[in-house]
Amino acid sequence: MKGGKSMAEVVQREPENRIGMEFNAEKYKTDFPILSRMIRGTKLVYLDSAATTQKPRVVIDAVDQYYRLHNANVHRGLHTLAEEATAAYEATRDKIAGFIGGVKREEIIYTRNATEAINMVASSWGYQNIKKGDRIVITQMEHHANLVPWIVLSRKTGAELVYIPIDPEGYLDLADLKDIIAPNTKIVALTHMSNVLGTINPVDEIIALAHKRGAVALVDGAQSVPHMPVDVRAMDADFLAFSAHKMLGPTGLGVLYGKEELLSRMEPVQYGGEMISEVRYDYAAWNELPHKFEAGTPNIEAAFAFLPALEYLEKIGMENIRRHEMELTGYALDKLAGLEFIKVFGPKDLNHRGGAVSFIDKNIHPHDMATFLDTLGIAVRAGHHCAQPLTRLLGVNSTTRASLYLYNTHNDIDQLITGLKEARRYFRYE
Ligand code: 7TS
């Protein structure tokens, strides 16, 4: 993407056709410069994509190109650069609207991340619609981003916060769902895919019941939108939140999808430039969607560079990415099952889980394990993964988590397994 291409070329670049081509993770790996980095003398094995993914060259180049050629503020200038920056910023919005199933561009709000997107719903829709005696329903497997905003909303409004429980395998236990989503329920907010257990939740069924009760449904898509086809209209979610940085894009950019009829009735969360239609000394009126929710100068660079990330994903195909990750997760689960000192959490059925695999060694603390694996160039995460109540429910303080993406290979898993065995020797358990 280097050079002086016109904005039309940048924005309308046709994805290269990879239909019919084999999924080649080894080849995709070469698109990511950081994946050829040496860490402590060995080539990086990156197994922490649930935290953030690495970026392909097209995304890195787009950041460079943005500042070299197109940098300007959006929606306010009449000069060429301002027009180019605005066109690119809005073109990414169109791309996102298409990527999640073809929604209206007005329904795509840029945020800083998935966390901010969920907080916006809690602090705007939440305070306008929830009062004492109402019920908020979430699940026991939520990331803090889809947990703490609802704890605070319930504390401040007096509404009750009720959890859909999980069963010992790591699935949601839906036996009492009809009682949990009681007639006084106003919102059901749940993750599509758990960042700890990998569980893919039956969101369609839960959303249908929420709607039957007159409640709205928010889906935390931070771990699903990057890894599988997500059609927000088919699932009929009222809100969907996700982050660009977990799907090859830059940090500092997230998305809130909301149905137009809901967004149009919601109060802005922040006030200032760009979100107004008219201001007088004693009066202010709001801009139309989506700008009403985008006060101040946004992350233009990130929006600019998110477009090639989405094109890259589309070019490979979300179905293909999902299939690759299912296969690789199955391989990892089989190999881990062969290690008697390792206990894996979460479902075994690949149809109902993604590629976040959390486990513990029966003797070695997850922090020691992750630190040891790092000496072998293997990046995993250890801790509670921003899901403290869930981790506690699993009966542990922390887990080690390997999480996969399109650039991971069987060799990466083999190295992880070798590393886990070496850790036993290093810490003298064998
Ligand atoms: N929801 C889920 C399910 C997540 O996994 C995360 C981040 C978030 C929301 C918040 O995303 P953010 O971009 O706003 O931070 N999950 C993780 C993780 O598993 N390790 O680091 C971040």
List the SSEs and their pairings.
Elements lengths: L6 H6 L12 H5 L8 E2 L2 E2 L1 E2 L10 H14 L9 H20 L8 E4 L2 H16 L5 E5 L8 H10 L2 E5 L12 H4 L4 E7 L11 H10 L3 E5 L11 H4 L3 E5 L10 E5 L1 H4 L12 E5 L2 E4 L13 H17 L1 H20 L4 E3 L11 E6 L4 H10 L2 E2 L1 E3 L4 H6 L5 E5 L6 H17 L4
Parallel strand pairs: 3-15, 5-6, 5-7, 7-8, 8-9
Antiparallel strand pairs: 1-2, 4-10, 9-10, 11-12, 13-14, 14-17, 16-17
Helix pairs in contact: 3-11, 4-11, 5-6, 12-15
The protein binds ligand 7TS.
Distance between the termini: 52 Å
CATH architecture of the largest domain: 3-Layer(aba) Sandwich
Q: What is the tally of beta strands?
A: 17
User: Mind telling me the CATH superfamily name of the largest domain?
Assistant: Type I PLP-dependent aspartate aminotransferase-like (Major domain)
Number of helices: 15
At the first level of CATH, the class of the largest domain is Alpha Beta
CATH topology of the largest domain: the name is: Aspartate Aminotransferase, domain 2
Radius of gyration: 22 Å
Please tell me what the overall shape is: globular
Ligand roster: ligand 7TS
Number of domains: 2
Which spans of ≥5 residues are poorly predicted at pLDDT below 50?
1-20
- Strands ordered across the widest β-sheet: 4-10-9-8-7-5-6
In round numbers, the mean pLDDT is 95
| Largest sheet features | 7 strands, mixed
Strand portion, in percent? 15-25%
